[in-house]
């Protein structure tokens, strides 16, 4: 934590963190928003959307 606060972290470590954040956000948006899409005239219920976002967050954290 002291390296991050003092700014002695390094360029590659910062790039790795940025790339990991980008990938995590992309997964969350793709899975979360993908679960809100309906098909064949049927839209998902609120429970399905909620569970989908919850599972997407669990996948990103894991």
UniProtKB/TrEMBL annotation:
SUPFAM superfamilies: Aquaporin-like. Its main location: membrane. Signal peptide: none annotated. InterPro entries: Aquaporin-like, MIP. It is a multi-pass membrane protein. Keywords: Membrane, Transmembrane, Transmembrane helix. GO terms for cellular component: membrane. GO terms for molecular function: channel activity. The keyword Chloroplast does not apply. It is found in: Membrane. This is Aquaporin.
């Amino acid at each position: 934590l002291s390296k991050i606060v003092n700014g002695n972290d390094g360029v590659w470590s910062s790039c790795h963190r940025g790339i990991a954040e980008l990938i995590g956000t992309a997964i969350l948006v793709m899975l979360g928003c993908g679960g809100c899409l309906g098909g064949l005239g049927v839209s998902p219920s609120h429970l399905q959307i909620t569970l989908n976002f919850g599972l997407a967050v669990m996948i990103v954290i894991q």
